[in-house]
Amino acid sequence: MLELSILFPALLNGLTMGAVYALIALGLTLIYGVLHIINFAHGAALMMALYGVYYLKDSAGIDPYLALPVVIPVMFAAGYALQRGVIGRASHGKDENILLVTLGISIVLENLALFLFRSDTRTIDTPYTLSTLDIAGAMISLPKVVAFGGALVTAAVLLLIVYGTDLGRAIRACAKERQGAKLVGIDVDHVFAMSFGIGLACLGAAACFLLPAYYVNPTVGNGFVLIAFTVVVLGGMGSFSGALLGGFIIGIVESVGGLWLGESLGQIGIFLIFIAVLLFRPQGLFGAKA
Amino acid sequence: MLLEISSLRGGYKPIEVLRGITMHVDDGEIVAVLGSNGAGKSTLNNTVCGLFPAFGGEIRFEGRDITRARHTDIVAAGLIQVPEGRRVFPNLSVLENLRLGSYRRGRERREQNLEKIFALFPRLRERAEQRAGTLSGGEQQMLAIGRGLMGEPRLLILDEPSLGLSPLLVEEMFALIKRLNEDGLSILLVEQNVGQSLEIARRAYVIENGVLNFEGTPAELLANPQLKRAYLGI
Lengths: 290, 234
Ligand SMILES: Nc1ncnc2c1ncn2[C@@H]1O[C@H](COP(=O)(O)OP(=O)(O)OP(=O)(O)O)[C@@H](O)[C@H]1O
Ligand SMILES: [Mg+2]
Prior knowledge:
Chain A is an all-alpha fold. Chain A is 73% helix and 3% strand.
């Protein structure tokens, strides 16, 4: 039997990672919901954002949290341009094509990173890297607490956009009824690109919150995209509340699973859940039956 | 002239569906467009609205050439279509659907216009928070029209608004169209319900196989035994 003194910190750690997973998965969900494709370039885009944060700190001395107002708009612009200039053009309106295009982009980005940054794993040092916070007796690393809060705030902003603005309504409208959208004067290509941009902007925020407590190398995105994909499937494809809850569940499963199986095997639990969901509840926790 | 279409050709590359259509709508008119299934009526609407490119000919709206305009600009100009099959946003609430009706046009007066739509369709107010996909067919048709009106149309194109409605609702629908027109709205009405359309229209066109085979007043159409047999079955 595990003692509460071990379990409680593990739960808290799981929650903090879970919030970041949720944020990454929300971006993936947004793109999936509108374009009906899994963005395979999601992990590579996160990796690029992490390198951005890394070099802003390493060469320009900009603190990762202060880099937010730079990284988020840059990721948004990159996403907008990528959808409008490459993915939308190359796909000719066929979902299978979009899938392959995003896969291609991820391969290009990863190799570009290998070429530019080499395969070394890098971390940054900040004054608060080793700081901890005492939460009811559990010592939690301060950057993780910030990541938790930051991811939740970003997710809240995202949901406000999606549910409270004309852009958000247009995004959801285009997801299900493109011709109707055109007939009220919505520029569908623009909305697609906005969705992609916002999806990548989430990754920009995630990168700023992650790096102080994490590391970056050219393949770091792969792990995240698998987890984010599991979160999206668990939550119900295209469901925002599902992605949020799914992120937390996966974060906790990984962290608590790590107690039994050790750090590196903790992720096994995630994939067991993935398979179980596919077997027993393929529509996910919040998804509608197909 | 509000809408002026000359020698319009269009369709779905490489198939030409519209083979030279010339017609117009004046300010304040209801103009009926009739024709059997597959004649090209919806293709005409969608080409006029900029969803499909015209192959040739010209479309003018309020004197402006919109033949190659983007659909966003056409909506912004006040040429608004309520499409066949409603095409409401099923995953959005009734209120959100209506709000999006003023996405491109009439946004400044969105709240006033919402009130007007709710006064016109009290049923929509009751169901404001309901997802549009769960509305009945008749309610969805009201919503589609409400959404179109939210864009403050100068010309409203209605594509088969009575399709799939019960006889009682069909009556109500035509009464509504007539009322909207009496309040000053110009309407291009595409219909299979020939009898009722002719009762409220000032002029009518009949399309067959992508070309016009009649234009004139309802009285003239009814005076033509051949057309009367073809479209009214009498
Ligand atoms: N997206 C499309 N791609 C290819 N052909 C199409 C497309 N939409 C319609 N057509 C064809 O164009 C022709 C005209 O169709 P259209 O929908 O304009 O007819 P309609 O007069 O509106 O008929 P209905 O009264 O049944 O609605 C038909 O032969 C149809 O098969
Ligand atoms: Mg039609």
